[in-house]
Design a protein that fits this description.
- The structure is a homodimer of 504-residue chains.
- Chain A has 504 residues and is an alpha/beta fold.
- Chain A has three domains: 157 residues, Aspartate Aminotransferase, domain 1 (Alpha-Beta Complex); 36 residues, no CATH class; 229 residues, Type I PLP-dependent aspartate aminotransferase-like (Major domain) (Aspartate Aminotransferase, domain 2, 3-Layer(aba) Sandwich).
- Helices cover 38% and strands 12% of the residues of chain A.
- Chain A has 18 helices and 16 strands.
- In chain A, the strands form four sheets. Chain A has a seven-stranded mixed sheet, sandwiched between helices.
- Chain A starts with 14 loop residues before the first helix and ends with a helix.
- At the A-B interface, α1, α4, α5, β3 and α9 of A face α1, β1, α4, α5 and β4 of B.
- The structure holds FE2/S2 (inorganic) cluster (FES).
- Chains A, B: GO terms for molecular function: 4-aminobutyrate:2-oxoglutarate transaminase activity; pyridoxal phosphate binding.
- Chains A, B: This is 4-aminobutyrate--2-oxoglutarate transaminase.
- Chains A, B: It is an enzyme of class 2 (transferase).
């Protein structure tokens, strides 16, 4: 069973972590490592470190473990020998398994099914059989499907899926899909390349127009070269790495609390949107046409910077006016922490974004896209593996648990407790923290320390109290708990934070 | 047990693969897919397809399954509950497990231990305990280690390791390590950045000198943007994707058989080396200094293009003369298929290359490097996961099996059978095939069809005979069997190929 509370036996990190770090540093650059975690003993919302300290984990491997540590339903899938084989045989994208389409339909493309559940459970149990995970049953010889899923997985309007392995290759390849779409349009849909096209691309030269993506200051889209040229979070991420002259616009920086700064923040939206559109026109006229706009629904590494639904609605319109695709990068926000599977669902966009990328909590990486973003030829969006079927298997089980345990409801309920508690602390300790923010309900919440040093002190002291959190931006503390983080965990966190703020 | 021979029941691909393809195409771009593989029933060197055909697999997921399908020792590791936890808890690079350093030392940094084995097995069994995988024992309280490993894992002279998830992020990050090394040298080792450095990198502009890597025509280093700018295999891989003006030199294209073209091939080496050095000087003087030379030991996707040990020795010297690092990309060649763990071991380089990247057969991606290629600060070579500890766990078991079953010897023995058999067929069928080539012994062998169409016909007809192979370059057929491919498998392959060539 999950521990009832944090338990701290040594300084955090303690001497054992220190010894392991010394050992690791001999063979790996480890400047960013401090704490070593015992993954065998960690459970649920609690990590156990190398010194035996039990910490409430409100950061969860940068939002990457949707169900916390060692969730029994996930451990269980490896009791099935045929699942073990999926983990052991890495398979190339060119030779999929016959169950691959079904695995995608029952995970990433999972649908809402409501009424049939009753029919299945009470009226015709003998005839229909029992299938957990609904989508799967759809594949089985026309038997109508069955369970009571409360959410639809794929963003509404996006029916095509490309799996990848991490956030960086998800974004790199989504960018490529956008370039190919843009250039195919320019060719009037023709898939014949000219000899000039062929010769120039093989020599790293672009004939005519190399398309570019527009990104935002403060953005983080990954660290491989294409991603990194759209990432503008911290200098140390970009220093010394070759980059490209691509358009970079300002992302809104709001004043908090929002209710007290409505007019300024609207003005901020307007200024930023104006700049995006101007930049696109400028780069178009410079012969560096802007094929896409790349944006996070919440700039996470950059400091949990939010923008309004209106901002995103108008950004989509700018894309339409200028012929640029809209890519929403949900690598950190996707998978439920904002109380919806996708953060951009909160924006009420009149139609789907063109591409949505994901990774982290989704376990597999990849992107959803509209049909016209599927390249017209094979081998253009391609690599050896194109993601890992074992991660899709795990995701499917995660979705079963989210559905069965109504975890999105839990996220919303816990988010309310967290947010209200933090609002009270913010009022009590204005000399330490400010700018509490979150997307509607949900646990994807952040606040700022009054200085970067104060933020760092809070994170460090929370560790000594048995609470693991993380920073982002210059002075932000972000919360990224698992979907199983419940109201009573929120209360423990708030208690410990109060202790820390009182003692500062 | 592994099937005794191929068994073909339908056309390959058959109707079931066709149905699955239709289904998959509805939700994914699948132009490069044709065959669906039943990974539950595939075993050892044989894949079973969706139509129940049993094919001898001489391609092995583009060289990615070191021990073939469903190797019992790999399946076994998931009988250990603590291993299951490693597969289920994806862990961020910032929070390693206490066993991580030991896992690296007993897999990627595994050493040769010979004599102690006897001591252990016969003299002091009670006192020392039994540890498979030697390196691990080194960690256990000073007990001297034990087993009879016949190979050393890390390339000689490279003691530092960085794990990654795939070939692309391995190369992208190895490039970054080279840029950082180069610019740090320029700063005289200082780790203080100027304000100009900071401002310009955040705006995607380089102050002074953006370093570049030199690559070769015909190379393949991956498909994310930085990798793709050093990849020059096929136009369809690069079309429409923005690239950079980086130096690209000719890679030797030899005439075969080598014995009959010694002079021409030496001349070819000389010309290519001269061009590399000229290009580096040219780009240096253009203000695009060449920080590294990126090269495969065998250009694999580009058509299995080989170069002589002398070529690589002199390339290393060019790097030294011009101040450019030498990166050898062993993503496809590494892990044993050339009869040594690393293909570049065949080159007798006077000292280690600066960086060696790997993935595929190694299961985990990553790179080995010299100490000076470790960035002086944290967060510069960084991503959420930095590889997957479950893959390192699998690699460790693969290495145990390689060692126990003497698989490198098997590769050499089987390679001899393959090569000699193919040499005979090449002499009998000069109207169909030519240019047989391989690195010393080993199974990393290729030959050309007289035309691309003929190569394609051979691959297609081999499939109907129950043999799965792959193409590369314009007209090359490449063999990439698993390390467990034995002489009797080679004989089956040679028989079937003879049948196909006779019937052409
Ligand atoms: S770039 Fe995503 S796994 Fe390597």
């Amino acid at each position: 069973n999950e521990p009832a509370a944090p338990k701290v036996l040594t300084a955090v990190p303690g001497p054992a972590s220190g010894r392991h770090l010394k050992d690791l540093s001999e063979i790996q650059e480890s400047n960013a490592v401090s704490l070593f975690v015992d993954y065998e003993r960690s459970l649920g919302n609690y990590l156990v470190d190398a010194d035996g300290n039990t910490l409430l984990d409100v950061f969860m491997q940068i939002s990457s473990l949707p169900l916390g540590y060692n969730h029994p339903d996930l451990l269980n899938i490896l009791n099935d020998p045929s699942n073990v084989k999926v983990f052991i045989n890495s398979s190339s994208r060119l030779l999929p398994s016959p169950t691959w389409p079904m695995k995608l339909r029952s995970s990433l493309l999972r649908q809402i099914y409501l009424l049939f559940h009753l029919l299945h459970a009470y009226l015709l149990p003998g005839r229909l059989g029992v299938y957990r995970g609904s989508g799967e049953a759809l594949q089985l010889g026309g038997v109508v499907a069955l369970t009571s899923d409360v959410f639809q997985m794929a963003p509404k309007g996006l029916k095509h899926i490309c799996t990848m392995a991490c956030g960086s290759c998800s974004n790199e390849n989504a960018f490529k899909a956008i370039y190919i779409w843009y250039r195919t349009k320019e060719r009037g849909g023709s898939v014949d390349f000219t000899q000039e096209d062929i010769d120039s691309c093989m020599g790293n030269q672009a004939p005519g127009v190399p398309p570019t993506p527009a990104s935002f200051h403060g953005a983080f889209h990954g660290r491989t070269m294409g991603c990194l040229a759209t990432t503008h979070s911290k200098p140390i991420h970009k220093m010394d790495i070759p980059s490209l002259d691509w358009p970079i616009a300002r992302f809104p920086l709001y004043k908090y609390p929002l209710e007290e700064h409505v007019r300024e923040n609207q003005e901020e939206d307007r200024r930023c949107l104006e700049q995006v559109e101007e930049l696109i026109h400028k780069y178009n006229s410079l012969g560096k046409p802007v094929a896409g706009i790349v944006v996070e629904p919440i700039q996470s590494e950059g400091g949990d910077n939010h923008a309004s639904p209106q901002f995103f609605q108008q950004l989509q319109q700018i894309g339409k006016r200028t012929g640029a695709a809209l890519l929403i990068d949900e690598v950190q926000t996707g998978g439920g922490p904002t109380g919806k599977i996708w953060c951009h669902e909160h924006f009420d966009l009149p139609e789907a974004p063109d591409i949505v990328t994901f990774s982290k909590k989704m376990l597999t990486g990849g992107y959803f896209c509209k049909e016209e973003f599927r390249p017209p030829q094979g081998y253009r969006i391609c690599n050896t593996w194109m993601g890992d079927p074992s991660k899709v298997l795990m995701l499917k089980e995660v979705l079963n648990v989210i559905n069965r345990d109504r975890l999105l409801d839990n996220v919303n309920e816990t988010g309310d407790v967290l947010y209200k508690g933090l609002a009270t602390l913010e009022q009590r300790f204005p000399q330490h923290i400010n700018s509490l923010r979150g997307r509607n309900r949900g646990t994807y919440i952040a606040f700022d320390g009054n200085t970067g040093a104060k933020r760092d002190a809070i994170i460090g002291k929370l560790k000594q109290q048995g609470v693991h959190t993380g920073g982002c931006g210059d002075k932000t503390l972000r919360l990224r708990p698992a979907l199983i983080f419940q109201p009573h965990h929120a209360h423990i966190f708030l208690d410990k934070l109060e202790t820390v703020l009182t003692g500062l």
